[in-house]
Design a protein that fits this description.
Blueprint: E1 7-14, E2 21-29, E3 34-38, E4 50-53, E5 58-61, E6 68-72, E7 78-82, H1 86-110, H2 140-144, H3 162-187, H4 200-232, H5 250-253, H6 263-266, H7 270-276, E8 297-298, H8 309-313, H9 315-322, E9 341-345, H10 346-352, H11 357-361, H12 369-387, E10 395-397, E11 404-412, E12 447-458, E13 463-470, E14 475-487, E15 492-504, E16 509-513, E17 517-521, E18 528-539, E19 544-551, E20 562-569, E21 574-582, E22 586-591, E23 596-600, E24 610-611, H13 622-625, H14 627-634, H15 638-662, E25 671-674, E26 677-680, H16 684-698
Parallel strand pairs: 9-10
Antiparallel strand pairs: 1-2, 1-7, 2-3, 3-4, 5-6, 6-7, 8-24, 11-12, 12-13, 13-14, 14-15, 15-16, 15-17, 16-18, 17-18, 18-19, 19-20, 20-21, 21-22, 22-23, 25-26
Helix pairs in contact: 3-4, 14-15
Amino acid sequence: SDHMENIYGYLMKYTNLVTGWQYRFFVLNNDAGLLEYFVNEQSRHLKPRGTLQLAGAVISPSDEDSHTFTVNAASGEQYKLRATDAKERQHWVSRLQICTQHHTEAIGKNNPPLKSRSFSLASQGSANSPGVQRRPSQNAVSFFSVGHHRLPTGKRVPIMQPDHLVDVREMMSQAEGQQRDLIRSIECLPASGHLTSLDQDLLMLKATSMATMNCLNDCFHILQLQHASQQKGSLPAGTTISWLEPKISLANHFKNGAAQNFPAEINKPASVREEQSIAEPCQLTREPEEINPDEELEDICDDKEDDLGAVEEQRSVILHLLSQLKLGMDLTRVVLPTFILEKRSLLEMYADFMSHPDLFITITNGSTAEERMIRFVEYYLTSFHEGRKGAIAKKPYNPIIGETFHCSWRMPKSDVATDAGTNSSAHSPSEQVTLPKDLEGQAEPDYYTVKFVAEQVSHHPPVSGFYAECVERKMCVNAHVWTKSKFLGMSIGVTMVGEGVLHLLEHGEEYTFSLPCAYARSILTVPWVELGGKVNINCAKTGYSASINFHTKPFYGGKLHRVTGEVKQNMTNTVVCRVQGEWNSVLEFTYSNGETKYVDLTKLSVTRKRVRPLEKQGPFESRRLWQHVTESLRDGDIDKATEHKRALEERQRNEERLRAETETPWCTKYFLRDGDGWVYHKPLWKTVSAAQTQQTDSN
């Protein structure tokens, strides 16, 4: 054939994260069915640096870009290659596929089908090659128990509907589990004997089973695209594509065949199993949901991250990870090992910064602009201590795009300090604040409520938006944070890019603030967290600002977790308050009148947040979304936690790919894009402003 000529040329070959991509000279030997590579063209007459047998191989163009492709050999070895452009990639892929098909078919013609061949682990015999001579009693198919699943005979599907796609996904999940079992069984065979892991027929079985599953996944993906394109013309603008999930729960997603279960699933109550296996696809509605705080219950979860054992036991995993990283490397797309995870999402961690709602509420009680700025600084510095769960530097779950977290806090009014002269009657008529009509006329409870909502609004880059409000005190805070993590050698640095704004509607004031960087130190021994960098707090209306420095520990000597700062009046450049101490221990505030106040953060009372029970949470609320990962981590089952985590991440990648191919934009649920930032869709300042306008019109 004209297409069977030998081809050669330079391609980039991916080695590992340390070495990266390197140019190598590749030769496709069609006669021998080999793909060989050399350091360069001049060394072509020498022994190849590497060789792949193409019989039974799988050649796959990558969806990363238009230049990359992979060659998966039957032996399990893989080459990840990159051409100079899409045209050259297509040239190599098509030639490799033709050569692979030719030599795979040649093996099939020269050998009888696998199920008519015979194998035995028990039989003994004198054969020069265990992979050549076999006995009639030996049967690899029965040994590996390769099952076949068929659709129910009475079920005819004239039109492919979403529910039918879910049925197909279920069956494919079972097939994938069985294929993984098959590969494991082959790889666990001894390297020598009558039946080895290098047996040619078994290597062919590995390759063809992998190719079959890849083909089925491609076909299923085409069906999803067809279904989405059919819907695209009939759905209203702004409608997003639902996540097509199996009707089985994530816990069951990785079953290796219908008869096998995770041991932990068997012991779960029937009500939980029933809830987890609701027979419907997980539809993602983007309409904002009003959460009733009365449905929320005081949180009883107390996951302290103080177990050092796992870190010590997994040191080899950390060393392996470190060997693949470069200094300054962005870790956004690096999958970190599961055992270093906290048992909560990053969105919930942001909520835990609000664990002192009494200090938050009293900010607006300050009788002067100076006092309100100082109170905000006091609250700001006390928020980071409770945001950490123990001394170990563990990492929260990376939120899935569309993930949300809701909670609230209730503070008895008698526990919140008030100052004389700070009620609304003390302000001029222009500063009077009118509440919305739906909040008027209601019987006042004897507590203040602070409501919180967070949403992951972007995946790349990873951006979270969060919003909190206390309607009774006419105050709210809106923020967006982009977490950028980098590898720094023996530590990991996380930069919190973004901005927050505190609105005190009673005073017409806005306070803008930023967040410090976080560092995970000593990641090879006992990792710990410290904060670093300079942050600023500004109020344009009053002219007050604060500059706060989080000091990282110097190489020799020095204190841990040290923080210093000052509050000043910009117009006069007068410092009205200085602060020093440790952000996780004791803070000392010195005021312009000479008074000093000490705040011991370890003795501050923590108000437990209120969260809806799991059964009342939506499918993309953090605790329900990550519940199986959290349960597995609590049980110390790292493997199971990793499986559940991988399922969530893979689902997100598939959905992102589907949106890209159908050109469907992602629609957020609670936050709207505002320039470079994100703003809550129904902030208190808009609600109050609308109420004031209505009152003016009625007068």
